[in-house]
Every structure is written in structure tokens, then in C-alpha cells.
Amino acid sequence: MSIIFSKENICLIDHMHFVNKCYSNVRELNNRKHYTLTPKLFSIKRERSNDKLFRKRKHNDNVLEEALTIQALYNNLIASLPTGLKTAVKNKHNTMDASSLRDFSKNLFESTDYDHKDISGGNNSEVPLICQIKGSDFLVPGKCRFICGCVKEECKKLDGNKYDIVIADPPWWNKYIRRLKKAAFKLSYSMMYNEEIASIPINSLFSDTTLIAIWCTNSPSNIKSVKELIFPKWGVDYVTTWYWLKLTIDLEPICAFSSGSKKQPYERLIIGRRGDIKVPENVVFASIPSSLHSHKPPLIDLFTYYNVSTKGPHVLELFARYLLPNTTSVGYEPLKWQNLALYVEYQ
Predict the structure, then answer these.
(1) Cβ of 300: how many Cβ atoms within 10 Å?
(2) CA distances from 243 to 10, 192, 286, 287, 328 (A)
(3) What residues contact residue 34 under an 8 Å CB cut-off, 6+ apart?
(4) Are 68 and 256 in contact (CB under 8 A)?
(5) Tally: H helices and E strands in the chain
């Protein structure tokens, strides 16, 4: 399991460990090989500045209370870590300086910009494999399916299928990302207004008891939209919010906590349900993030650990950028982070 330490409702997870498990026995012709994401991607370091661990600004009371709660849980986690774990994590991931990592990640992002629209496929076996699509090699985990295309259109075609877990990482409308897209590199998912996300025809894809998890920005308008527009339109009841706390290789927050509307070292996962599912409240899961744009950590081990899903659930992921076992991944880029160039072989 990718959870390497937990205490109460906060845990430390290892994204790379999950990947190792997925690709520990890849079938390639008559051979079996082991692959993992290149460790360089997780060499995240905090660039020192004048900010402190908690940055005081003109504050919003709700934001301040939330940030203080997460910071207190983080302090409790760090104080409880087994001797040697912090050093072991740093030694594992300390492979590249910050400037080189930015260039490395940018080059990988640009080199994996594919047009796979209308391509679909999958792997019905338990064993991961390598397949070639349009001249490039991709890793495909066991028991998965991918569909490349418009999320709204492809969801219509999935009618008749039922899923126990639905995960979505929508391209929220964001002025900063809009400027970044124009000034730097291409972000293939076009940003969507909240009303467009709410109109995704997903209602018929839920089983009798389905967990729905939406990655959301810290924008108050987007948070409100999930709870009051998107979930009601989908026929989903809001349950709670979990938080992904992003850490450096020193297990420090990637930036200072803020009392205002500025950048926070965490993102939120807003959770809803269809049917009777018990979900623990306000879970914080911490990890070293990948340096690749919008490369979120896998969630299935978390859901299993906190008893909100059984092993082997049918999972649907919307706006996917990588593949997962037992998961149908839908969007324009489900193969983006599956390119073999992002992985290294290990013994």
C-alpha cells in the first residue's frame, strides 16, 4: 500500500510506491520487467524566501481556520514520524536541483503532447504491458480501459456501465493558468466554466452506492459551485472535504500556509456520495508531489485504507492524465503520463 505512515486522520503517502506496485511485472515480449516513474520527478525542494511557515495576510476567517487546522495536523504528523523515516524519504528523492527539475519537467510535458482523440483501448489481463500507439510506447496497467475524447461526449457512450467510485479533476477556469497557457506551453484540457462541468451527463453511471471525489481549487467560488451546483445537478450529496498537503523532500510544506486567498500548500478533494456510504471527515493526506503539471496522487489505496471502498471497485476517472488498475480513464490525455520516457527500469 502507498500509505507509509498514518496517525488519526492524517497520513503520509508515497506516489512512487504505488507506481512500483502497478508496474513491478510488466510483460514485454517474452520478458518480464519492472518499471517506476523516474525519481527525478519527485525531487521537490522549497526555494527559500523571506516567508515563514505561516504567512500573515489580510485574512478570511474560514480560510484561516482551515489552514490552522491542517497546519496543526501536519505538526502532529511530523512529531510522530518514526526515527529515520524523514532521512530515508529525503535520501530517496534528493536527485536534482530545483532549476534543473523545472527544465526537465517542462521538456517532458512538451514531449508528451499527443493527439489521441478517438483512440480507445485497455488491458483485460492482470499483468501490465507495453503497447505502441502512433509510434510511441506506453505502459498500460492491468484491468484498465482508456477512452480519448471529450468527457461530455464519452460519458454518453458509457451509459449502461455502473461505477463504485468516480474521480474527476476538472480544468477549472483560472486566470493564472489562462495566462500560462498563452505564455508558455500548451495545456490540452480547455478550461471549463462551472456550469459546463455540472452539465456532464454522469448521473446514469453511478451504482447504488457510489463515492464521488472532485479535485477542486481553493477558489471559494469553485468550492461553492461543487456543493451547490455540480453535486445537486449530478444527484450527489456532499459529505466532506479531504486535503492533499504537498511536501518537499524534507517533508516541509512546499510553501507557507496563508490566512488569505493566496497560494496554499494544499489542494482539496471534495467528496460526495450516492447511496449509504460512510466517509471519515477532514482527512489530510500528505505526499511529495510530482513536478509534472496536474499529476495528482492515486487515491484508491486511501479509499481502501479508510474503508470507503472494497478492493477491486469499478472506478471511473474523468479528465484523466494517467491510467490506473480497475479504472476506466476518460479525457483527451489519459495516456499522457503513461509514456515510457517518464519511467526507468529497475531490478
Answers:
(1) 21
(2) 9, 23, 8, 11, 24
(3) 20, 23, 24, 25, 26, 345, 346, 347
(4) no
(5) 10, 18
Q: CA-CA distance, 1 to 105, in Å (whole number)? A: 27
Query: In 43-153, which ranges are E strands?
Result: 54-55, 120-123, 129-133, 136-140, 144-148
Q: What Cα–Cα distance (Å) separates residue 121 from each residue in 125, 142, 162, 210, 295?
A: 13, 12, 19, 24, 22
Q: Tell me: the pLDDT tens digits for 90-149?
A: 999 998 888 888 888 888 888 787 788 899 999 999 999 999 999 999 999 999 999 999
- Distance in angstroms (rounded) separating the CA atoms of residues 315 and 210: 10
What tens digit of pLDDT does each residue of 205-219 get? 999 999 999 999 999
* pTM greater than 0.70 (yes/no): yes
- Coil, strand or helix: which one is 215? strand
CB 213 within 8 A of CB 271: yes
137 neighbors 180 (Cβ within 8 angstroms) = no
CB-based burial label for 161 (10 Å; 0-12, 13-18, 19+) = middle
What is the Cα–Cα distance from 15 to 227, expressed in whole angstroms?
28
- Spatial CB neighbours of 327, under 8 Å, sequence gap ≥ 6: 144, 145, 300, 315, 316, 317
Contacts of 76 (CB under 8 A, 6+ apart): 7, 8, 10
For residue 183, pLDDT over 70 is answered with no
Amino acid at 192: M
Residue 208, Cβ neighbours under 10 Å: how many?
Answer: 9
- Return the DSSP state at 336: G
β-pair partners for 167: 213, 317
Banded model confidence at residue 153, pLDDT cuts 50, 70, 90: very high
3-state secondary structure of 173: coil
Tell how far CA 9 is from the center of its chain. 19
CB neighbour list of residue 193: distance below 8 Å, 6 or more residues apart: 173
